Amino acid sequence: MRLIADEQLGRLSRWLKIIGQDVVYRNDWADEELLQQARDEGRIILTRDSHLPEKAAGLPLYLVRENYPAGQLREVVEHFQDRIRIEVFSRCVECNVPLRDVPKPEVEGRVPPFVWKTQTEYRACPQCGKIFWSATHRERVEVQLRDILGELYRSALDGEEK
User: Fold this and answer.
1) Are residues 125 and 95 in contact, defined by beta-carbon separation less than 8 angstroms?
2) How confident is the model at residue 134 (pLDDT cuts 50, 70, 90)?
3) pTM listed for this prediction
4) Maximum separation of any 2 CA atoms in the chain, in Å
5) What is the pLDDT of residue 139?
6) 130-155: buried (b, 16+ CB within 10 Å) or exposed (e) per residue?
7) Is the pLDDT of residue 115 over 80?
């Protein structure tokens, strides 16, 4: 599922990328730019702008009603639950590009010494080069996701993307 989020949904778009969703976001969209990119790339529009559906001319659009990012995430995952498969930290939250596994020798000198000594698995963004590894941050995020999404989190982990 490919999404595009309007300028009011920056934090939601980041959370969606954290759970592995393909989300395009900019904080300076003009409505026509957002609509054109959605049209060109076949993306579903996520918006808080109640006037945007009038301009969307039949494009797939979901009007997010929740005010806060945690509620927005739950709302969107619940609405699209048949189409979402959660894959935590599988995309770069900056570039929106799928991460790739990299062998440990390839990251030597690019991660802190303690991380190098204690971690064995690494992922990298092929676009920006940022290196990722599992640590307490991932555990905290997964706890937050379980709190926010509840049973939806477990269901989306177990399901398959459609």
Assistant:
1) yes
2) confident
3) 0.88
4) 55
5) 84
6) ebbbeeeeeeeebeebeebbeebbeb
7) yes
- Residue 79 CA to residue 90 CA, distance in Å, equals 21
Per-residue pLDDT reduced to its tens digit, 14-40: 999 999 999 999 999 899 999 999 999
- Residue 47 φ/ψ, nearest 5 degrees: -145, 155
Token reading at 52: 């945007």
The secondary structure of the chain as a DSSP string is -EEEE-TT-HHHHHHHHHTT-EEEE-TT--HHHHHHHHHHHTPEEEE--TTHHHHSTT--EEE---SSHHHHHHHHHHHTTTT----TT-B-TTT--B-EEE-HHHHTTTS-HHHHHH---EEE-TTT--EEE-SHHHHHHHHHHHHHHTHHHHHHHHS---
C-alpha span between 162 and 130 (Å, rounded): 29
CA angle 8, 14, 17 (to 5 degrees): 130
How would residue 161 be classed by pLDDT, with cut points 50, 70 and 90? very low
